[in-house]
Amino acid sequence: MAIVEMVMPRMGESVMECTIISILKKIGDSVESDDSVMEVATDKVDTEVPSPYSGIIKEILVKDGDVVAIGNIVMRIETEVTSTQNGSPTPIAEVPEEALALETQFQSLVASPIQSAEVNSSGRFYSPLVLNIAQTEGISRQELDQIEGTGTDSRVTKKDILAYLEEKKRHPVGAGLASGPDPASIQNAGVAQEASHASSPQSPATIRKTGIEVIPMDRMRRVIAERMLESQRISAHVSSFVETDMTNVVLWRNQIKDEFKKQTGEGITFTPILIEAVVKAIKDFPLINISVEGENIIKKRDINVGMAVALPSGNLIVPVIHNADQYSLIGLAKKVNELANRARQNKLTPDDLAGGTYTVSNIGS
Fold it and tell me: N or C: which end of the chain has fewer CB within 10 A?
């Protein structure tokens, strides 16, 4: 028997840390390889993390609400594993330290809008995610340095900076000063206080008086809003409308849907039919399967079709059918149903959401 360390696995190309939603196992529990042991949230998806080993959980190093960097140790498991030549166990899902270092360096260069190193002159480390939040919220580096960190080596985590912002809303600029504030600071404080009140839950009396209700967005809706605004910045936007007579398609689906269900075990909606049409169009006109980076046109060889799925919460998510051109219509129907069901059950993985080259919206009947 040996004690092996389970690390937080990669959660996608640009994800450097994630938040622990809940621990699904406890110390002393036995687990099989691929059993889910915790549920985590990133800025892209909520997902369950499986154990890479079979064995007994001996130690859990994280708790609900912790923000954990990719590659950090989260559990220790007693298991029988194949040893290396020097006798030490070889973790299945462990990310090499060299790869993590390169990933961190790369992300610090391309992901952080604040043009400075992640480690400041005082030696304090800031992750790209924290720097992004600081830039978005208008927090200066000097102000960032004053935030108390609860992470390793007093590192400021996502949870720390969000808590700081929440506290800042409750105590606007000018509060708690020993000397009397000047008129400008009083005005600024009033504006901040008004904004704070607008973002806080409102009583029925307030709603009746103002005629409006402010509903705070959940995490996924905030991410959707950020992505849509980012899309406007980096993508040229144009709308084109072409009317299509779908009568024959509707009649054909109505005619075969019962037999299709009987033979394949899958329902057939219009979505796989439209995706198959898009795939054929991309094959005929490959220059619609492109992206623009700077002054270069990036032509995609793979046809990876994203499909919009509405969630029970009212949010929208876009899982991807990779290599969609390799599926028959039956295969597309099965894949569409599988991804839609896993999306609604909150069981998508980061890979399910990555790599899309063309997206089809779901416009309903």
Answer: C
The structure's pTM equals: 0.50
The tokens for 172 are 């606007």
Q: Are 302 and 322 a contacting pair, CB within 8 Å?
A: yes
* CA pair distance 360, 338, nearest whole angstrom: 16
Please state the φ and ψ torsions of residue 59, each to the nearest 5 degrees.
-155, 135
Query: Using one digit for the tens of pLDDT, what is the confidence trace for 198-216?
Result: 445 555 555 656 667 788 8
Report how far residue 233's alpha carbon sits from residue 298's, in angstroms, rounded to the nearest whole number.
Answer: 18
Take residue 140 and report the two structure tokens written for it: 């200066």
Q: Count CB atoms within 10 A of the CB of residue 253.
A: 15
pLDDT in tens, 84-94: 433 344 443 44
Q: Are 66 and 7 in contact (CB under 8 A)?
A: no
Q: Is the dihedral of CA 224, 229, 231, 234 positive or negative?
A: negative
Rounded-to-integer distance, Cα 40 and Cα 50, Å: 11
Residues 6+ apart with CB under 8 A from 226: none
C-alpha to C-alpha distances, 2 to 7, 81, 85, 89, nearest whole angstrom = 16, 7, 15, 7
Residues 6 or more apart whose Cβ sits within 8 Å of residue 269: 333, 336
Report helix, strand and coil shares of the chain as percent, to nearest 5: 40, 20, 40
pLDDT tens-digit series, residues 100-109: 443 444 344 3
Helix residue ranges per DSSP H, the chain:
97-110, 128-137, 141-145, 158-170, 183-199, 204-210, 219-234, 247-264, 270-284, 329-344
Report the candidate in 295, 190, 288 with the shortest Cα–Cα distance to residue 238.
288
Task: Quote the tokens at residue 355.
Answer: 């790599």
The full DSSP string for 319-341 is -EETTGGG--HHHHHHHHHHHHH
Q: Are 61 and 7 in contact (CB under 8 A)?
A: no
**Is-contact 253 270, C-beta < 8 A?**
yes
